[in-house]
Amino acid sequence: NDYDKVVVKVKNLDDLPAVKTAIENQMNKRDKIVDVVDTRKTMETIFAAFGQITTFVSAIGGISMLVAGVSILNIMMMSVTERIKEIGIMRSIGAQRKEVMSMFIYEALILGVVGSLIGGIMSLLGGYAISSVMLQTTKYLFVPSSLIHIVYGMSFGIVISLIVGIYPAWRAANLN
Description:
The chain is mainly alpha-helical and 176 residues long. The protein has helices at residues 16-27, 39-82, 84-92, 97-135, 144-173.
């Protein structure tokens, strides 16, 4: 009568169904009904929910990356269009196609690095806020296994900016 919860640990997980049945049979002889809960089922449900949340957030991140890539492509194409005279002057005084192309690729790289740094900082701040509100602690945020995902995202952003910067750079290099 003094306890409202008892935790039973089994040494061998194969014995779990038998132990659960034995506890239910022994404890439910009285008027009171005792619920026996296997925490593995609860953990499986929690992990499934987190898996769905992770998939949803990854999809949002993928769409955001696609939008960012199209935006960088648009900015670079506008930059090429606005600088046609500048490119023509550079080419007329002896600039190689490779030099013009590298100039625009460096521009795309700078856009990618700056955007990724801003995104990384915002990820840290957002993660800090969410951890503070939901978990009441931020100790899980600053572990290498959590921080590495921010580095992966930043690297992916830089690579995407370089990939979408290739076509505008090629187009600028091939202008007369």
